[in-house]
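STRUCTURE:
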């Protein structure tokens, strides 16, 4: 009888775990929870970084019979211009991703908090309204791609081959960006309910398709047309379509915490308001990166026509180290939001501190790579001329210094978002990328040319670190210290 009773108790515990709000985010030991949720996202983000680099790696090998020389008479390969073109399209890509990720962060925060509070109606409303907002965002991207692509590229100072390649690439990724919006929202819905391993499956599958299709479409292999830069754009879109289909399937079939249905759907302004209370500051924070890239491209092109390729190469390679940290910080948001909703301050803060530790370890590897082997990193892009290596090595070493502070700013910014104060992250981002970075780049460029300009990154990160620290102590006093420690009232121990 005792054995039967134990079995019944065990079964009841397992059933409770799967009730809404009683999932792993409120029960599992925090280190194991952070790793279980973050590692799949970190891996999938790392794969994303890989195929972003692969795009640039392949386009750097584009060749043409046309001979182009810069103002000093040095040969400029088609590959160098192709890398520059991807960098010139990047501000709008960042803008698209800003709307997708920012809205998803808002959905994550609302949905995860609703899970913690056991509000199933709000959970489903957050999901359906989030998907609706992605479609609205796509319409904006479509308009940009159709009517403003050439204006954006030319507005940064691009001419000739850079302009041609940039417009081609940007128009394709904008007009076919619906798949990107859907891919991101479906992945984040899985993540916000504690199913990061499924989101990893969709993202990795999409990345693999992209990597496979890149050489086929860029160079015209296996009977495919030789599309050059356009092939890189189409390969990216194909990967996103595959990831979207897998993400939709996994949410419908493998996510019991959600019931996605648009039967009789009407936009819920109250829910949308809740999403954008957190999501809009995140959109602004991400979109600031678009303005920053646009401004940096314009400043750099005014100093050295070939240095845009260095700036683009930096952004591609640094993603190997920052994308895993972004995955870690994104995974932290639902953990913190859930335990905030459940009034478990101790668990909430433990998740934040563990995330800080892992971020520091990752960024340390990046710092060493940028300082010790920048030439090896740059050799990934074999453009056929030596401009990239010559300018890139000192640039990488200067830029890499800001890694020392960036990890703290990223993780703490996600803490602000999870607690419903994304505006702090927005202000911090404005301080770093507009108020400090661009003026510093302009002044340093005027004083010492392109060689001194790169110090603007460490200068801006110092300002960001000071701002982040100030807001952390402010939010600690106003919110964190006032949260009832529900951990002490919870008689159930954490799962081992």
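SEQUENCE:
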């Amino acid at each position: 009888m005792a054995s039967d009773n134990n079995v019944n108790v065990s079964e009841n515990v397992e059933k409770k775990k799967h009730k809404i709000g009683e999932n792993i985010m409120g029960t599992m030991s925090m280190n194991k929870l952070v790793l279980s949720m973050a590692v799949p996202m970190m891996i999938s983000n790392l794969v994303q970084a890989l195929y972003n680099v692969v795009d640039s790696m392949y386009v750097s090998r584009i060749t043409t019979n046309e001979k182009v020389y810069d103002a000093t008479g040095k040969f400029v390969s088609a590959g160098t211009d192709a890398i520059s073109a991807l960098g010139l399209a990047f501000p709008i890509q960042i803008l698209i991703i800003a709307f997708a990720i920012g809205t998803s962060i808002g959905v994550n925060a609302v949905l995860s908090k609703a899970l913690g509070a056991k509000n199933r109606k709000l959970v489903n409303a957050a999901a359906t309204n989030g998907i609706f907002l992605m479609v609205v965002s796509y319409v904006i991207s479509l308009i940009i791609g159709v009517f403003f692509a050439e204006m954006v590229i030319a507005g940064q100072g691009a001419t000739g081959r850079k302009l041609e390649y940039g417009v081609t690439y940007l128009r394709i990724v904008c007009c076919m960006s619906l798949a990107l919006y859907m891919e991101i929202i479906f992945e984040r819905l899985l993540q916000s309910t504690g199913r990061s391993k499924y989101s990893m499956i969709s993202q990795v599958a999409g990345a693999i398709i992209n990597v496979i299709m890149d050489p086929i479409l860029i160079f015209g292999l296996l009977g495919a047309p030789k599309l050059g830069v356009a092939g890189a754009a189409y390969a990216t879109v194909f990967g996103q379509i595959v990831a979207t289909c897998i993400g939709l399937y996994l949410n419908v079939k493998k996510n019991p915490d959600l019931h996605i249905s648009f039967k009789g759907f009407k936009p819920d302004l109250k829910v949308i308001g809740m999403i954008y209370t957190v999501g809009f500051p995140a959109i602004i924070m991400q979109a600031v990166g678009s303005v920053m890239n646009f401004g940096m491209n314009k400043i750099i092109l005014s100093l050295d026509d070939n240095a845009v390729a260095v700036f683009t190469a930096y952004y591609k390679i640094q993603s190997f180290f920052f994308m895993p940290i972004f995955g870690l910080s994104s995974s932290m948001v639902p953990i913190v939001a859930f335990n905030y909703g459940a009034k478990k301050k101790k668990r909430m803060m433990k998740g934040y501190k563990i995330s800080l530790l892992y971020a520091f370890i990752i960024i340390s590897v990046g710092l060493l790579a940028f300082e010790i082997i920048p030439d090896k990193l740059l050799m990934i892009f074999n453009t056929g001329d030596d401009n990239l290596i010559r300018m890139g090595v000192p640039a990488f070493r200067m830029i890499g210094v800001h890694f020392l502070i960036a990890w703290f700013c990223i993780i703490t910014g996600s803490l602000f978002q999870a607690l419903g104060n994304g505006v702090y992250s927005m202000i911090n981002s404005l301080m770093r990328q507009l108020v400090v970075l661009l003026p510093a780049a302009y002044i340093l460029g005027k004083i010492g040319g392109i060689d001194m300009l790169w110090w603007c990154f460490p200068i801006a990160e110092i300002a960001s670190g000071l701002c982040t620290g100030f807001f952390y102590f402010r939010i600690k006093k106003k919110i964190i210290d006032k949260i009832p420690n529900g951990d002490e009232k919870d008689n159930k121990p954490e799962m081992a």
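REMARK: Residues 31-487 form one domain.
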